[in-house]
């Protein structure tokens, strides 16, 4: 055999081997029809909302918990962005339209819950579209509902859950499952939650699968310590619709993980601040988050879970920095719990997107040229203390003073209730006390929101689309794209 013939034979053998491999990989037409298609991976979205957790609050949380050079869980999220929060009619937003923008992709007016941009929360005479008992008086034709992320995912077979430390009918949780022209119609919002009941939001299908938080008063009639004027007991109606009901920590933690529907209402109004919480009566935000994941994650088609640290905002309105930061760290612990659980369920978070952000800012400020304090402990005020001199020399560590010679705190507010007519010398024992209210520049009965951008952090499936400066309405579309939802 000539060398040319040998080369030709080798080429033919190689070609035959390649053809055999190809045929083996393809199989027959019959084999292809019989083989099941690859199972689609379950996709999950966990959306964390620290209500009022502006960037200054987030910074103060870090110093409070870990010191200036330390980190909290939120700091570890790899993808980050700044979010603009203005509403359709306000430079400074309230929680309703800002959270609704995340959940619907639509700008709306202040106090409006998941409705079209032109919806009004106030009548032409300036009165709110709600009565004194918390019933909506929205007029027909005043705007239209817009689809929420929870409704969209529910309609495509995902399990859904809502967890909050506020009333479950409060603005932030309500934007996920309800539609109303004024956020204060909480009796009406509650009715939208009850499958088959009068006023039920049919877009929820068989209802939100897991609902945990406070707000029992909007589920019960007046003769049962509630605020309902229609005589309905919505808790009993939810139980009739298939929900297991729990009202304390032990009952919640004892719920079986194969429970299909769960309603947990732990307080009459909002849940307690973390600083005041009685653990046996009210679960922590981390405990509620963990239980919700345990219930939702086994479902066949993935899940959507919204978790709100709602009382951060309430403490800031009161100018109670200690309670705001303590609730902020409780929120951060819930994020940590979710990351740990989801990493075990979905290693690398390849099919799970976790987003952590805030709905708006507050007027909290970090004052003066303070020396570093490190973290706050029981016997060290830290960031809750006084501005002290950082410079070397005999005055290092000595409190700095105002023009009248009085020391002042590191944390303060642009407005709020504590505006003394005459400032007096304060001690760190006073300023680190549980009930101390930081001083404000402008005296108001309650501190207001601020208009600054907020932080957004994300990790997992599709998280790399979150970067730069974005509008709050863009978040909705980015989450949909990560899920490949139409």
UniProtKB/TrEMBL annotation:
Gene Ontology terms, MF aspect: alkaline phosphatase activity; metal ion binding
Gene3D superfamilies: Alkaline Phosphatase, subunit A
Cofactors, names only: Zn(2+); Mg(2+)
Transmembrane regions listed in the UniProt entry: none
Record-listed Mg(2+) binding positions: 51, 170, 172, 308
Signal peptide coordinates: 1-20
Binding site for Zn(2+): 51, 313, 317, 359-360, 449
Pfam families (alphabetical): Alk_phosphatase
Cited InterPro entries: Alkaline_phosphatase (IPR001952), Alkaline_phosphatase_core_sf (IPR017850)
Cofactor note: Binds 2 Zn(2+) ions. Binds 1 Mg(2+) ion.
Ribosomal protein found in the keyword field: no
PANTHER family (UniProt xref): ALKALINE PHOSPHATASE
Protein name per the record: Putative alkaline phosphatase lipoprotein transmembrane
Naturally occurring in which organism (per UniProt): Alcanivorax dieselolei (strain DSM 16502 / CGMCC 1.3690 / MCCC 1A00001 / B-5) (Alloalcanivorax dieselolei)
């Amino acid at each position: 055999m000539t060398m040319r013939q040998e080369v030709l034979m080798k080429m033919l053998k190689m070609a035959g081997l390649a053809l055999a491999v190809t045929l083996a990989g393809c199989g027959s037409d019959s084999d292809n029809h019989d083989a099941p298609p690859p199972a689609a991976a379950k996709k999950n979205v966990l959306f964390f909302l620290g209500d009022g957790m502006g960037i200054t609050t987030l910074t103060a949380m870090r110093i409070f918990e870990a010191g200036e050079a330390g980190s909290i869980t939120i700091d570890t999220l790899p993808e980050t962005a700044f979010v603009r929060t203005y509403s359709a009619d306000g430079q400074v937003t309230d929680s309703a339209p800002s959270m609704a923008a995340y959940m619907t992709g639509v700008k709306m007016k202040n106090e409006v819950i998941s409705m079209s941009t032109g919806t009004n929360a106030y009548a032409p005479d300036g009165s709110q579209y709600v009565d004194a008992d918390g019933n909506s008086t929205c007029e027909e034709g005043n705007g239209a509902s817009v689809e929420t992320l929870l409704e969209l995912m529910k309609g495509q077979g995902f399990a859904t859950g809502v967890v909050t430390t506020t009333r479950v009918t409060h603005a932030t949780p309500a934007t996920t499952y309800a539609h109303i022209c004024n956020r204060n119609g909480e009796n009406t919002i509650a009715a939208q939650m009850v499958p088959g009941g009068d006023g039920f939001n049919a877009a929820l299908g068989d209802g939100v699968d897991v609902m945990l938080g406070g707000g029992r008063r909007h589920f019960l009639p007046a003769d049962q310590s509630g605020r309902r004027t229609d005589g309905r007991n919505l808790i009993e109606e939810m139980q009739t619709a298939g929900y297991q009901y729990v009202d304390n920590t032990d009952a919640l933690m004892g719920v079986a993980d194969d429970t299909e529907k769960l309603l947990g209402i732990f307080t009459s109004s909002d849940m307690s601040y973390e600083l005041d919480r009685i653990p046996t009566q009210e679960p922590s935000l981390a405990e509620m988050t963990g239980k919700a994941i345990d219930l939702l994650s086994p479902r066949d088609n993935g899940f959507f879970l919204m978790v709100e640290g709602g009382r951060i905002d309430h403490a800031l309105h009161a100018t109670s920095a200690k309670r705001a930061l303590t609730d902020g760290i409780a929120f951060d612990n819930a994020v940590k719990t979710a990351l740990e659980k989801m990493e075990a369920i979905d290693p690398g978070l390849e099919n799970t997107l976790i987003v952590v952000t805030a709905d708006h800012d507050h007027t909290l400020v970090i004052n003066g040229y303070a020396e570093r304090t490190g973290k706050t402990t029981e016997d060290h005020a830290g960031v809750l203390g006084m501005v002290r001199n950082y410079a070397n020399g005999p005055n290092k560590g000595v409190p700095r003073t105002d023009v009248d010679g009085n020391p002042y705190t590191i944390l303060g507010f642009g407005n709020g209730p504590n505006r003394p007519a005459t400032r007096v010398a304060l001690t760190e024992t006073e300023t680190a006390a549980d009930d101390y209210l930081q001083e404000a520049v402008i005296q108001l009965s309650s501190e207001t929101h601020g208009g600054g951008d907020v932080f957004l952090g994300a990790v997992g499936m599709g998280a790399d689309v979150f970067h730069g400066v974005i509008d709050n309405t863009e978040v909705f579309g980015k989450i949909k794209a990560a899920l490949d939802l139409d």
